[in-house]
Amino acid sequence: MKTVLFLLAGIFACARVLAQQPETQPYITENQFEEESARTDAIPQEDGQWQDQEAYRRRPLQLNKASAGELASLGMLTPWQITALLRYRDTLGAFISLYELQAIPGFDQSTIERLLPFVQVGYDLDPHINWRTRLTQGSTSMLLRYTRTMEAARGYQAADSVAPHYLGSPDGLQLRYRYNHPGYASYGLVMQKDAGEQWFQGAEKQGFDFYSAHAAIKNDKALAALLLGDYTVNMGQGLVNWQAQAFGKSAGVMNVERQGDLLRPYASAGEYYFYRGAAITLRAGHWRCTAFASSRKLDGNAVTDTLGINYITSLVASGYHRSENELNQRQQVRQYTMGGNIGLHYRTWQWGLNVLYNHLSQPLQKRAYPYNRFEFAGQALGNASVDYSGNWRNLHFFGEVAASDNRRFSMIQGLLAAVAPAIDLALVYRHYDRAYQSLYANAFGESFRPANESGVYSALTWRLFKPLTLNAYFDAFRFPWLKYRVNAPSAGNDLQGSLLYALSKKSSVYMGYHHKTHDQNLAVAAQGLTPVWPAHTFGWRWQSIVACSPAFTWKMRVQTSTYRHGSEHAAGWMLYEEGSRQWKRFTLTGRITLFNTDNSDARIYINETSMLYSYDIAQLYGKGYTWYVQARYKTKHFTCWCRLRQAHYSDADHIGSGWDEIKGPNKTALQVQVEYRM
């Protein structure tokens, strides 16, 4: 009852200030990260697009010269919105004012508010680009981040004469330097030590556990891009290779097409999804030609069989090297990669031919489980694909057809349609063969790997009237072969619907419902067999953001989760309130979250406000509460963050499992970050 009264008090305290201007849709971004974490059970580590956005914030993108690729790199516009903007500019000439964005079909107030900090108009604002301006007019940043869990986990504790399992301290440290002139030049260095890893001692005498560096030049006459060091490759719709951040199904129901630069400098701290070598793109007229080569060592579980043959049972993507076991997995296999793309860009259409070849120094042979029967095995893997995208009248088409060298195919075909000024539709069909093989593919679907899946996705965005928007999707899918924890061919469907009411520029209310059905093994076997039975997961979410004053924002969310699978049943709920107060240079943010779920089957993922370039997705299950306080102080060149977070579980005497187990009901984390920018 106290919690309910506290929630109502926050609502009524701010109810008098709801007559301001329309606002953005932060719930879409939050929902994308929450759904992605639930899908992959991992926190995103690739923040290249976020870095580019911050660079555009300091040197906005020139709308009168921006290409479709540059607009897509912002990560804020759908393909149809990009097409509408370019068509408006070609028809009516250069933009005179940003107010003209209101006249572009498909641009509502939320889209415009989200876009404004990163764009500008006027040719006089964009100086002539030469080598001097390319290397001096960008932004330079240096970032230091420190993290630590205050309670000592089991892996850091010594037992009698036995040394701790983790060889290093529980301190996490990241250093990053980057010069970034979006669209023209970038170079930088990243150094990282994860918690539990050694630093300038033992196995890490060279200092940090992970180093990454890159240098890139773009848009210099015929040279579209030249990258040295670490970079990502993002082809077509992700059937062959996609290493940058990409989302699946979410509240952004129209964000179904993979968009982004084919080559992108890598300046993040993740240790797996990138290449190391050189890449180049040349252009002539409507043609683009890209080639790249890479050689790098990967972590893996190495095994020697009875005949003395060495092979790898799995590649390890975590990047952790905290213990002797994890150090034994380090750099066990070298990966050689070559590939390329030939692209034709003509008017509003583009086509691409993609090829990729990977060779491992040791063969990969996954463990002999039935669901691994069609997985890649061996040392060499080749892929090729054809992709396209383009517009015809009020329709936008996109797709890709790919093949692996075992002659198995995957394909995805999509359509976006503006059927009315206030209504957008999406339709996506995908068919991924059960034996299609790839190493770095990440395509749209129920699973992030484009294999063993077929499905049809349909979505609707309907701007019912100016402040109210309806978003909904339905996805029906099936898996023709076995999956992990699914011992038979299976099927399912996914439904989500939401309403967003923009009360004002900084105030909005969101309500959504999500229901997913998918087959899964029953926990109890019957007569030696494990039956497969539909599992249902569904829940409601209500969220509001209220600008109580120009300097104070209040945010609230209530969310439920229910899980049913045979005789199993679990349910839970979560409620949080967050306040943010801003002074001239100082911002203080705090949140308290209450949660109560029966078990992990009803767990809830929530995005937490955090420091720049830091993704914090909380996975809540059990019974308890969390709170955090974050302070930010900003000067002309320096920005400092300090964040303290604690989780308390009232129904547990320990948190976590294995070597990460913490005795007691509390887990407290400290984060400190300093950024220097000029």
TrEMBL record:
Pfam families: HHH_3. This is Helix-hairpin-helix motif-containing protein. Keywords: Signal. Residues 1-19 form the signal peptide. InterPro entries: RuvA_2-like (IPR010994). The lineage of its organism: Bacteria, Pseudomonadati, Bacteroidota, Chitinophagia, Chitinophagales. Coiled coil: none annotated.
